[in-house]
Amino acid sequence: MTTKQRKTLPKGRGGWLLLCFAVGLLLLLGAELFVERHPAFHWTEMYGFSAGFGLVSAGVFLGLAKALRGFVQRDEDYYDN
Predict the structure, then answer these.
(1) d(CA 81, CA 3)
(2) CB neighbour list of residue 39: distance below 8 Å, 6 or more residues apart
(3) How many whole angstroms separate alpha carbon 26 and alpha carbon 5?
(4) Alpha helix stretches (DSSP H) within the chain
(5) What is the pLDDT of residues 16-47, one digit of tens each?
(6) What is d(CA 63, CA 56) in angstroms, rounded to the nearest whole number?
(7) pLDDT over 50 (residue 8)
(8) Alpha carbon of 58 to those of 28, 51, 62: distances in Å?
């Protein structure tokens, strides 16, 4: 196989997946109102800190992965030679 094929969701499924993630996020943010927190630092007392920290962390990891991909990715015929 010489052409790269992208694996994607079937048509119409991407919107439902995004909607499910958005509803899950809203439910978790709403649940944070009813959970008693015991923060170790003053900035962790902010509403939604965990969600924001997780979002930023995921973005940093994705950025690092994209940057490192250029260093560790091999050619398609690397093992053939």
Answers:
(1) 19
(2) 45
(3) 34
(4) 13-31, 49-72
(5) 878 888 898 888 888 888 888 888 888 888 88
(6) 11
(7) yes
(8) 17, 11, 6
Residue 67 has pLDDT above 80, yes or no: yes
Q: What is residue 1's predicted lDDT score, i.e. its pLDDT? A: 46
Angle between helix 49-72 and 13-31 (nearest 10) = 140
Q: How far is CA 46 from the centre of its chain?
A: 22
> How far is residue 38's CA from residue 32's CA, in Å, rounded to a whole number?
12
Q: Would you kindly state where each structural domain of the chain is located, as residue ranges? A: 13-72
Query: CA-to-CA distance for 18 and 16, rounded, in angstroms?
Result: 5
Q: Which pTM does this prediction carry?
A: 0.58
